[in-house]
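We read letters as residues; the fold follows as tokens. Both lines appear below.
***
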Amino acid sequence: MPTAQLQARDVFPTSWLDLPNELITEVVLYAAVSHLPTAQSLRLVCREFNKLVLSCLLRDLIFTTPSQIVHFAELLLPKRSYPLLFPIQPRPRAPPRSFDSYKVTSLALANIHRLPSAEDALERVATALTSVRQLAITDKNLSSHAFWLRKFPIHPSTLMVFYYGQANPLDFREPIFQSVTHLYCPTVEGFHDSSLCDVAALTHLALYSGNIGDEDEKLLAVVDEIGDILRSSPNLQALVVAVASLYIYARWQAVLTEHSWVLDDKRLIVLPYQVQPMDEWERNILGRETIWDRAKAWSPLLVHDVGSDMVDGFADEDIVHRETGRMFDFPPAECEREWELSLFPEQYHIPSSNPADDYYMHTVYPLDD
């Protein structure tokens, strides 16, 4: 081959094998991120591609069944070795990828059924979850997974605790709350004499009102707790209470008027719009606007005195949708509810018939050895 062609080959490589490893890595990762079916196909090319693509796919995870958790652990753990029936030379196995190389940034444990096998599986791969910065978990899972959550340095900055059916008091002194700055909380009741004031790093707190009904005593108790939180949390920058309608908004305003020292605190914002928890979580992991962004945008609108348009405790809800619609693209109001964050839960709970498994959890196929 002439020298000029050899030089051109060095400058402009024409073969995949001629590309540097760094560039091949970038190409594979770009293809995996851009198209999920392509990522699944790339996993079947070779072991190195499988490890590379897995680290890309396993970034934002949500588990809705124990089997998904077990399957996730099997992907990361070394393959089992079985005794050979015939005296043949076994094929050498590549060393398993280090758990530290996985960068899982968000995790949601939304499974209703809790099994020891799932808890054990997560404990075995917990080192791969130490990079989690956004965690959504049910109150019961927070209890059942408490052992490995305490054992390993799992310190998210954003935490959403939700429930199915009925909320339980939380122990806010648990290590999982140690570094939490942004908290979605379904209750203001603490377990073992703990309270939200014990979350030292907390700067942003979100509460969902739900349907108050005729529970004025409970509403007064919640307002008293909110007052204690505002008074005892100097680092707190914003406390947002999201309500589902302007009627409930008026109920909150009426009670807060009787507690003027709470209402006068500018950190407290009652937001007359409520995004469903699952949609709110999706906005968090996608980097879109959160409840605190919407509350910050809503505050200047209060100068219009929305409450003056209320008649006999009811209001024209188009006021809110018309104003907020200029700033954000909200999901439809009939969005199906699954996760619960309400301070005042419903009397009964009907599980959704449309599970989020396929929508949130990437389907990954193990590479046979």
